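Narrative of activities, Objective 1.

The group set out to show that a structural description can be obtained from nothing but a protein's sequence at a throughput compatible with the screening campaign. Below is one input-output pair from the validation batch, recorded exactly as produced.
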Amino acid sequence: MKYYSFVVNEDPPELQFTSRLPDNFPRNGKFGDLNVRQLLFTLESGPDSERDLVLRQRPILLDMDAGEQQNPLVLARFVQNFKVECWDTNVAEWTKEWEKTNSIPPLIRVSLVLGGNNN
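Output recorded for this entry:
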């Protein structure tokens, strides 16, 4: 379950899942032929007090290495809001957290609000 779970959290905002990735996916050369990896998208504090959307990845059977942990791939800077919502068919509405970690929601809605540096 820890290798193939699908996780969405509201606070702190997080999206985590395992996927088979194409050959041209970012940082693919770092992982060689290990194209099934766990991806973790989070919103974190960056330099100059901005918030950054970052991506960390690791092969499913290995721990995340120190380089990936300390230097994630920054996907967006000056993020004002990052929200992931999942369609829950049982209640027919969007939910901000996905508690059924061993299943994938039928629909996912990602909202990303970018802003400039306030300085």
